[in-house]
Amino acid sequence: MRKKLTLPLCSCLLLATGVFAQVEKKPSSLGFSIGFADFIAVQDIKNTSISDAQIGGFSKMNSSFVAQYWKGLTKNLDVSVAYTGSFINRLPSTFPHKPVDYFHALGAAVNLKMFQEKAPVNPFLTAGVEGYNYKDNWGVQSPLGLGLQLNPFRGNANFLLQAQYKLSYSDKNVNHLFYSFGVLAPLTEPKAKPVVVAAPPPPADTDMDGVIDADDKCPTVAGLAKYNGCPIPDTDKDGINDEADKCPNVAGLAKYNGCPIPDTDKDGVNDEEDKCPTVAGFPRYNGCPIPDTDGDGVNDENDRCPTEAGPADNNGCPRLEQFNFNAKNVQFATGKATLTKGATTELDKLVTILNAHPTLKLSIDGYTDNTGKQATNLTLSQKRADAVKAYLAKKGISADILTATGHGIDNPVADNKTAAGRALNRRVEFSVVQ
Known about the structure:
Porin; alpha+beta; CATH 3.30.1330.60; 5 helices; about 15% helix; about 425 residues; 3-stranded mixed sheet
């Protein structure tokens, strides 16, 4: 029994330790609770398992009541003394000395709350020691459990819900569960702390500016009477007072009489940082307009060929036609991807153009008419585009700037129902992409 009693007693001592602070704590209070003692559930768990035991069934419980006294030691720690009376009519077969009509218990406990006293919902832990009696049998048990203190109206009265495991230290009793619900009210209302009202200070002029503090809107900073004891204002906080500031509502510099650095062209870049102060531009270009490096009227941000002049409708890139190149002269042997002599002559012009303009990148797109199967035409168009790319690469043009794509019968430029239309659709198109 001595070893079993050691753990609850140590728990009580640990819960009771701590420094007593000058904070709100529970006043002396009396309470009454309705309870239910369950002597059967613990035995069911021992005999079966916790999943099979019917914990909390009212048909196996004994009606009880609890009269108790509580007192706060600190803001989170209370002590309590309670008398519990149980009307016994449901006991396990293992309970000694049956039958039993009435079960008494008197003991003390410490209660550790999670929050301070006036919290609306306040969980707490309980540990204590009780003496019990039934018939001529006496013994000791320890209530260990959880509780919930409810204070919905933030007053001094509380509702208490508790669930405890009562650990017995002799064979005259069995370990059992105990549940209760009740109310706890203070014996006396707490006294309100007196409010100390400080005497008002005598009239003074702290900043010695000739305006007494009672009338001074800036009592710690010397000022002028016309500004109610405050200094001359600086509305825009630029360090230049409003009487000397030509732009009192906009922060500026002394060299501009309190006005901001001017922005002549109204582009959001002030003249001191603007490299084009009379022409509107952008901050990323230091106040200058977007440049047009190749002078083709398409600015560099929209120009896909910023170093090669070209029309706007071609995104600023040159058309090969302007270099006297005619893509219609690039022909192939019928049904083959073999370049004709005229085609190689025309492609030699393209080699000259690309060497003279090394920044250009070229897209080569092959097409066929609708004669034959689509798969065959797609393969043929790709081979023809590849043949052009291979010829240009052979002539020293980097393959990295060339893209060859076969499209088969897609995107016809003429009617495939006529021989003339089909001839126009059998083509290779060249376009500058950068």
